[in-house]
Amino acid sequence: MRSTPVVATVRELRAHLAPARKAGRRIGLVPTMGALHEGHLSLVRETQARCATTVVSIFVNPAQFGPNEDFSRYPRTFESDRKKLADLADLIFAPSVEEMYPDGFATRIDISGPATAGLESEFRPHFLSGVATVVAKLLIAASPDEAMFGEKDYQQLLVIRRLAADLGLPVDIVGGTTVREADGLAMSSRNAYLSSAEREIAAKLNVVLADVAKQVQQNVAIPMAEASGREALLRYGFTSVDYVAVRDAETLLPRDGIHEPARVLAAARVGSTRLIDNLPV
Questions:
Q1: How far apart are CA 69 and CA 238, in angstroms?
Q2: Is the dihedral of CA 192, 179, 87, 28 positive or negative?
Q3: Sign of the alpha-carbon dihedral angle for 13, 15, 19, 22
Q4: HEC per residue, the chain
Q5: Same domain, yes or no, for 267 and 229?
Q6: Which residue range forms the structural domain that includes residue 199?
Q7: Beta carbons of 130 and 61 less than 8 angstroms apart
Q8: Which of 11, 149, 158, 191 has the smallest C-beta neighbourhood within 10 Å, fewest atoms?
Q9: 231 forms bridges with which residues in the sheet?
């Protein structure tokens, strides 16, 4: 098993990628915050299959955490992550906060439009701007031919696609299928926060989303299907529900009927852990 090289600065990253770029080899980037699980690794494998050179970034981005969120306790498992990436990634980019946000850093990317209307923007107003800023920096630093993001963070995926299109970045933004546990719970680094009792409750999130999607397919009015989803989550033991929403799959605009591809998305808390998930309708 080979050890994947690690670089910590943009200068080193570009120097390592220069030979591949000069040779015309396709470069793929998988941005992560570490604490890697099978969901992340599936994105890396897909990138490896599509690209000659695969780069994985590991950076817990403070700009996307609010003042009362879990930045300080977010899982940091770098040595374990590096072992998991052996034979999968060609290079790990693991910058410091100071490398990404040096003294005097004063730029933040704000994206408006349908993809940012409601959902995460309503409950975590700092989040999408923080993601857009760090992803823009990563894309500029690595200049990949493609970058892959998981569909579990569906709104984030659409925002990043909008970002790349609006800034004219020459990169394909690829969505990777959500990887789930045997009981259907979407894999997430935050699942590690759950107690065994909370873990059983969390598994119901996917069940409720599937039921809401089925209701919509059976022509139940969307507001009624969304309300039944919220009620079901609370009944199953979720502490609170931020949203259960049926949206257009391409724009995330609210739907009054299903004529085009749609998505049902949800965010809810089990104890102090906030979980998100989505399914196609």
A1: 19
A2: negative
A3: positive
A4: CCCCCEECCHHHHHHHHHHHHHCCCCEEEEEECCCCCHHHHHHHHHHHHHCCEEEEEECCCHHHCCCCCCCCCCCCCHHHHHHHHCCCCCEEECCCHHHHCCCCCCCCCCCCCHHHCCCHHHHCCCHHHHHHHHHHHHHHHHCCCEEEEECCCHHHHHHHHHHHHHCCCCCEEEEECCCECCCCCECCHHHHHCCHHHHHHHCHHHHHHHHHHHHHHCCCCHHHHHHHHHHHHHHHCCCEEEEEEEEECCCCCECCCCCCCEEEEEEEEECCEEEEEEEEC
A5: yes
A6: 189-280
A7: yes
A8: 11
A9: none
CATH number reported for the structural domain that contains residue 206 in this entry: 3.30.1300.10
The verdict on 50 and 151 lying in the same domain is yes
Question: Which of the four pLDDT bands, split at 50, 70 and 90, describes residue 258?
Answer: low
Domains of the chain: total = 2
Note the pLDDT tens digit of each residue in 132-189. 999 999 999 999 999 999 999 999 999 999 999 999 999 999 999 999 999 999 999 9
Residue 132 in any domain: the answer is yes
Helix axes 204-217, 222-236, angle to 10 degrees: 160
Whether 154 and 194 map to the same domain: the answer is: no
Residues 196 and 162 in one domain: no
Residues taking part in catalysis: 40
Confidence of residue 259 (pLDDT cuts 50, 70, 90): low
Q: Is residue 181 in some structural domain?
A: no
CA separation, residue 95 to residues 78, 153, 279 (Å): 12, 23, 33
pTM of the model: 0.95
Question: How many Å apart are CA 178 and CA 278, to the nearest integer?
Answer: 9
